[in-house]
Design a protein that fits this description.
Chain lengths: 269, 269
């Protein structure tokens, strides 16, 4: 197919790409931005549809870009070649690499999650910072979680900084957004124990049993766990802190707890 | 003392503050920037000298700023009040809070580190990203490390992003910069075992003994551990990875390994 070439900074397609940085536009269009070689590669690997791919050779950092573009086109992406200036206008990153895709949003519900015999799930509440949510997804991927459930999120999953901070893991870890009360109901119906981290807990996270069907519950950055999860979790646990009270943020606490569960569950042996 | 008021954007003091963002200027002056309420508060708590404090009421976020400024002045800081525009010029952060200090750099050497009976040390090699180094300092603080030793750093300790990402922990965790060969010599002379994380290791980090005198060695973001530390470490260990190979970055791997050591050492009980 012939590639459409965009040179005018006034081109409406470019304006739309800039609009997609805003949540309202993303939600209205049910679309989102996937910027960068690594992220687009991972989307294609995971069979995530890329509807449109915008590229500018002037920004390429390596030599693999043309084959990635060909692969995206073969998978159905419409291609647009941009001048250096035009790409600079739409690039979200400080150091663009000349590749920007638009993908349709998806919506998974709890019933889409495939559960093994001993599910290992991470539940995070009301996360505010996209960078933290992206890091949490990476941690869940590394730990081998079966799913990440995001309750009442402040940031949306499709924020460009979530895509980026997740390094594309967003495309591989099953991730569902749902209200807390429905999540609790779903976990209980499946006999999945809930272990919630909170500084007020008596038990150390390393002394709590983290084997069997398990959901680890993490609160938000600013407020910690909500009353709802504090009251309804099966077991509160704490992470010991030697230094300043805020040295561990929610993403760091999630990582520590997940890997203690990995240890107890004998994963990776 | 009367407070000097700066209104001109051409004031040489403002130009100097902007220059201190660059490592060369920092190194020449042996000074660095401490921006933000939390960071300045922690510097004062830890008796770190603040030579100069620049503030602008127009950017204050709360009501505690005047008492912090008074405290800094009592501790010897010279005060400068800036207009909103003048502060915008010197602020390094995207969302300034109207407080920017200048502090003299310090230099600690290995011989300055006070070691307890069973030292618990983190050694990091050639870290490139200031954000990672700052996060690593937070992790070491939370885990109760006796010192962080930074070998052959690419980023300097006094980079504004290290100060920021460390949330001021830079002022409390003993942190030394030294060449790898001298660090190894120092560790060996003190009978401190070196455990190095590398994906090529056979042993899981959870099955390796992390009690007693211990130094955990972490490689750089891009290249991992150097030949030097691979060859000279007492025990290589690996972290199990369920997902994509790069889901864990160096800061995340350091955090996981540190908290496994905390568990084995029975800290926080």
């Amino acid at each position: 197919m012939p590639v459409e070439i965009i040179t005018s900074l006034q081109n409406p397609r470019l304006k739309r790409l800039v609009r997609l940085r805003d949540r309202r536009s993303r939600d209205e269009e049910r679309a989102f931005l996937v910027e960068g070689y690594r992220e687009i590669r991972r989307a294609l690997e995971k069979k995530v549809q890329i509807d449109e791919l915008y590229f500018s050779k002037d920004w390429f950092l390596g030599s693999n870009e043309p084959s990635l573009i060909a692969e995206a086109e073969a998978a159905g992406a419409k291609l647009f070649e941009l001048t250096k200036d035009a790409f600079a206008k739409v690039a979200y990153r400080e150091r663009p690499d000349g590749l920007l895709g638009v993908a349709p949003q998806w919506q998974r519900s709890l019933s889409d999650i495939l559960l093994p015999k001993d599910p290992f799930i991470l539940v995070v509440e009301a996360i505010e910072k996209p960078g933290n949510l992206g890091t949490i997804l990476r941690s869940a991927d590394a730990a081998g979680c079966d799913a990440v459930v995001v309750c009442d999120p402040v940031t949306d999953l499709f924020n460009p900084n979530v895509v980026r901070a997740s390094t594309g893991v967003l495309f591989s870890v099953p991730c569902v957004v749902e209200e807390s009360s429905r999540v609790l109901e779903w976990l209980r119906a499946r006999g999945i124990r809930t272990v919630a981290t909170t500084p007020a807990a008596k038990e150390l996270y390393t002394q709590a049993p983290l084997t069997g069907p398990l959901a680890i519950i993490m609160g938000s950055e600013q407020y910690g766990l909500s009353e709802f999860w504090l009251k309804n979790s099966d077991l509160p646990v704490r992470i010991p802190m030697a230094g300043q009270a805020d040295s561990l943020n929610v993403a760091m606490a999630a990582l520590i707890t997940l890997f203690e569960a990995v240890r107890q569950r004998g994963l990776g042996r």
